[in-house]
Amino acid sequence: SLYSVFTVLFTYFTSISTSQTTDCLHLREQCINAANGCESIWNVLEDICNISVLGNRCKAEDVIGCNRIIQVLADEYPEFKNCVCTTDDFCSIATLLGKQCSINQDNISTETKLQWSLSALSKQAYTANRTCLDVNKECVEDEVCNKQLSLYLKVCSVNKKCNMEECQEAIRSFYQNMPFEVAQMMTFCDCIQADESCHRAKELLHGKPCAVTAVPPPSCLNVIHMCEENELCRKKYTNFRSKCWRHVTKKCYDDEACLETLIKDDRPCSANADCKAAYISNWGTVLRVECTCQNLPPAEQSLCELFHHMLHSKSCFS
């Protein structure tokens, strides 16, 4: 069956990455305790790659600087060479630090691009109205796509306690690391109401419930405010607005009477390839969290409904 094929591949890829990460974490401990100069390079690395004192999170904003110091570590202490990737400026240091570390990056690594270039799935032309079950099945049967899917599902699995932030990070990486055509297929797939298998596949591909369902659901105004307080999300939101909703941002962003006419008009967004790419880029941010406009004061209702429409209506792309 579809899921038994997936389980075999999932187990295989998980076992490889887990053993490698364990070895690298062991080397890290040896380095810190070595008293041979390794620990001083490691201290610089922690600083530049922005690893917390507790060693449980890191967000490397200076990706190039972070990779440069990792290159120094690998040159000076060759035992680390299998733990780090230093072939390009946007290489993840997740191998070195396991699940403790990730890099905010919108660039697909050279290695991932090469893998996708060999994938049959990435050569398919995008066609609208694909069912999510078909798209999910094709991803599972494609070796490159399945590998990416298994890494994402490992973090967002419904069988364990959900960590929304980690799951969002995983789904962001999942969509970033695939060609535009494949990302479109997954983002814009749909299901007929009665097809339960399809709806399950759609939830799987779209991060439900872990990455998108908050209890209680926030207001759409709060979602926008939360996004604007986060540098990564703010950049994506600004890009999304300019690529998809230029008439809103140019004409009447804060004019409520004007906004109401836009909502009633249901004016479509630009819906071109740039807009679709910007919409797909919102995966793994608070912008994809399901939001509501219920129980808001009347004065905030129109703006909230416009934001809900901008973030969640697919009418833009139909």
UniProtKB/TrEMBL annotation:
Subcellular location as annotated: Cell membrane
Record's keyword annotation contains Cell membrane: yes
Record-level GO BP terms: cell surface receptor protein tyrosine kinase signaling pathway; nervous system development
Main subcellular location of this protein, as a coarse class: membrane
Cleavable signal peptide: 1-18
Pfam families: GDNF
Alphabetically ordered keywords of this record: Cell membrane, Glycoprotein, Membrane, Receptor, Signal
GO CC annotation terms, alphabetical: external side of plasma membrane; receptor complex
Recorded family membership: Belongs to the GDNFR family.
Cited PANTHER family: GDNF FAMILY RECEPTOR ALPHA-LIKE (PTHR10269:SF1), GDNF RECEPTOR ALPHA (PTHR10269)
UniProt protein name: GFRAL protein
Gene assigned in the entry: Gfral
